[in-house]
Amino acid sequence: MKIFSTINLLFLILVTSAIAADYNFISPEDMKQRISADKETIIVDIQVEDEFYRHHLPGSLATFAYPVKTDAERAKIDKAVQQYRNTEDIVVIVCPRGKGGAKRCYDYMKANGVPQEKLFILEKGMSGWPYKEMIVAGKDKQ
User: What backbone torsions phi and psi does residue 127 show, to the nearest 5 degrees?
Assistant: First the structure.
């Protein structure tokens, strides 16, 4: 019985790892370097409006699509998909914590023609962004 449980546990770990590997992530350090070097990047911010205006990365495209669960919320990402089609730049998705909403946005963009190798999620989202000096606040739309 122990062997069967161990095999099941190993299988579960492998399946979970394979699912998690379906997403590309970018670290805050690498994102800071991209911003500082002015590397062409489409920053798709899906935070709700209040959170976006409280804190977002410079050059972010505000979509207010969080939590990206409804057709109406997914439709808010279409402008980011179109921007990718116009530029083919790397896309970095920013959400409150870099989890479910970001993954749903990633899946939607991928399903709409943005190649996976061009899609990234900011690790830990805005809540994990350690570079406070780079945060933009206020109602100025990006």
Answer: -65, -20
Q: Give the burial string for 89-108 (b: 16+ CB within 10 Å, else e).
A: ebbbbbbbebeebbbbbbeb
- pTM exceeding 0.85: no
pLDDT at position 33, please?
98
Residue 23 φ then ψ, to 5°:
-125, 140
Q: Evaluate whether 96 touches 47 at the Cβ level (below 8 Å).
A: yes
Taking alpha carbons only, the member of 34, 36, 62 closest to residue 48 is 62
* Cross-strand pairs, 41: 90
Q: Exposed/middle/buried for 19, CB within 10 Å: 0-12, 13-18, 19+?
A: exposed
Query: Tokens standing for 93?
Result: 């998705």
Q: Which residues does the chain have with pLDDT short of 70? A: 1-21, 140-142
By three-state DSSP, how is residue 139 classified?
Answer: coil
Instruction: Tell me which H or E stretch contains 42.
Output: strand 41-45
User: What pLDDT is recorded for position 140?
Assistant: 56
Phi, psi (degrees; rounded to nearest 5) at 68:
60, 50
- 56 SS3 class: strand
